[in-house]
Amino acid sequence: MTTDYSDLPVVLASFLRNLRVVKNRSPKTVYEYMINLRMFTRFIAANQNMKISDDELDAVDISKLDASFYDRLTLEDAYSFLAYCADVRQVKEAARARIVSAIRSFYKYLFISNQLTHDNVMQLLESPKQRKSLPKYLTLEQSKALLSSVSGKYRARDYCILVLFLNCGLRLSELVGLNCSDIQDNTMVVTGKGNKQRLIYLNDACLTALHVYMQQRPVDGVKDKDALFLSNRLTRISNRAVQYIVEEFLNKSGLAGKGFSTHKLRHTAATLMYQYGHTDIRVLKEILGHENLNTTEIYTHVVNEQMQYATDNNPLGSVRPNQKSSDSGKETSKSNPD
Fold first, then answer.
1. Is 17 a catalytic residue?
2. pTM of the shown model
3. Is 299 among the residues known to form the active site?
4. I need a labelling partner for 231 at 20 to 30 A (CA). Which of 115, 243, 245, 258 fits?
5. 118 catalytically annotated
6. In this predicted model, what pLDDT tens digit does every residue of 120-136 receive, in sequence order?
7. Active site residue 301
8. Given 3-state DSSP classes, what are the helix, strand and coil percentages for the chain, each rounded to the nearest 5?
9. Is 193 in the active site?
10. What is the per-residue pLDDT across 282-313, written as a single tens digit (0 to 9) for each?
């Protein structure tokens, strides 16, 4: 992910460096902000040309623009860009919401941190309403089938990876970033978004899987000696390699093609903890490393939906009172009011 900001306005490059160095945002987050804000700036600089092609947009030179360019922009300019994203580039609601977040953050930096604009006009920029969808997850039986399918030369490693996903609700980047030194007795230190760390307690399944794996984990020739999970080249395992492992065993367990993925294992862990462990939603928030409770509450909706489904599919749910018996009851009630 590039840190070459030579094609950007100086003030935008400064904002991105502030995100990385001061705000301690991940390189991936900074890169996404850069892509969104560069496209936003180029679109406005191209006089909001709704028919501009990708090649033409990439050719727009914005490197000489300064803070006064952004100071002149209005909410209408921003909404015009969001309309372009939606109508021309077919950008989904969630991605447009991230663009809004990037623009708001940039203008907050311009106005509050550096007084480079007369006001923070973009604080009023509204985010597109997003359709809430319930997270997809494996059932308990499917989770067991997935674990049972693990085999091969790297069985101990691959099994341990799946066990940690399904029991600890880790993000992909969090699992890949685990170090041996992060494991202490029955706890594990996880480094999440924004380099924020949280402590997760390991159950017997995790401890057993880790013990078996560590006995087989290579020692000689290891290039990243503290990395917990290693590739066959003895380097820290990559995100794509872990995704491939998950895909392989989803296929072997007959779960391929059902919309499951590495991130769905995180949803599975959260759902099973809430459903079977009766975990308090605030505790679940801490385990998952969510910023706010609203994000975690989606798992309460999952269980509520299951409860409704169970009620709707009760075999007695379609039974209706016999009309003849009902009429008879009415006659009886007339003659015997008590």
1. no
2. 0.62
3. yes
4. 258
5. no
6. 999 999 988 866 666 67
7. no
8. 60, 5, 40
9. yes
10. 777 777 776 666 665 666 655 555 545 555 55
